[in-house]
Amino acid sequence: MPRDYGKEIDELKDQISALQEMIKTALEERMQTENEKVGHVEKMKNMFPNAHINACLDEMENIVGKSGQTGGITYFGVFSSGGRQSTWVKNCINTDDLLKLIANNVAEKVLSCLGNADRLNILLALLRKPMSVVELVTECKLNSTGQAYHHMKPLLAADLITEDGKGIYVVQPYKVQGIIMLLAGICDMADETYSKSRWDSEE
User: Fold this and answer.
1) Residue range 5-14, pLDDT digits in tens
2) 30 or 100: which carries more pLDDT confidence?
3) Given CB 3.0 to 4.6 Å as the disulfide criterion, which of 74, 80, 95, 162 pairs with 85?
4) pLDDT tens by residue, 116-136
């Protein structure tokens, strides 16, 4: 059976035209994704595999872009240990308000209160389970109950920990999220995926 070269050429032209149109559409969509902005915020489409999280990020980008603020964060979590649980949701936190914590010295005060190995070990122990002072001395390898009380005093004053009856101490449930989120931030800062962190440098 003789071939109809004219027809085959026409079909090939149609296929090439369709392919060109597909490429054009894909490029236009990519350009829209890369260039779309709301105010000063560039939209980051499909940044995360989960569609629900992408929708939340899209909403946050819109809020920040329209308001003109520097940024915003949303976070939630659950922590359950030692028979106690804390669950939290914080939505659309304005980063301008967070940055003010440096200017008004609140960040310095909080970090100074926590910036001690013994106090951090006490917090770690109490996050795991409620304990007495005697148990904390053993668990945290402290020299005496006096030393334990010395480090517990600023934690009590900051309402990070409290006595939960009969000499048993616990982390305040409404402070757990702050401690966990602070550790999450430290994890980000210490992450060496993109750079080598030097936290032991004296300079």
Assistant:
1) 677 777 878 8
2) 100
3) 80
4) 999 999 999 999 999 999 999
Euclidean distance between CA atoms 112 and 158, whole angstroms: 11
Q: How far from 77 is each of 83, 111, 173, CA to CA, in Å?
A: 17, 22, 13
Q: Are strands 131-132 and 168-171 parallel, antiparallel or unpaired?
A: antiparallel
Q: Is the distance from CB of 126 to CB of 138 less than 8 angstroms? A: no
Put simply, whether the predicted model's pTM sits higher than 0.85 gets the answer no
The residue with tokens 């934690």 is: 155
Amino acid at the residue 112: S
CA 119/CA 127 separation, integer angstroms = 12
Q: What per-residue confidence (pLDDT) applies to 202?
A: 60
Per-domain residue ranges of the chain = 1-30, 95-190
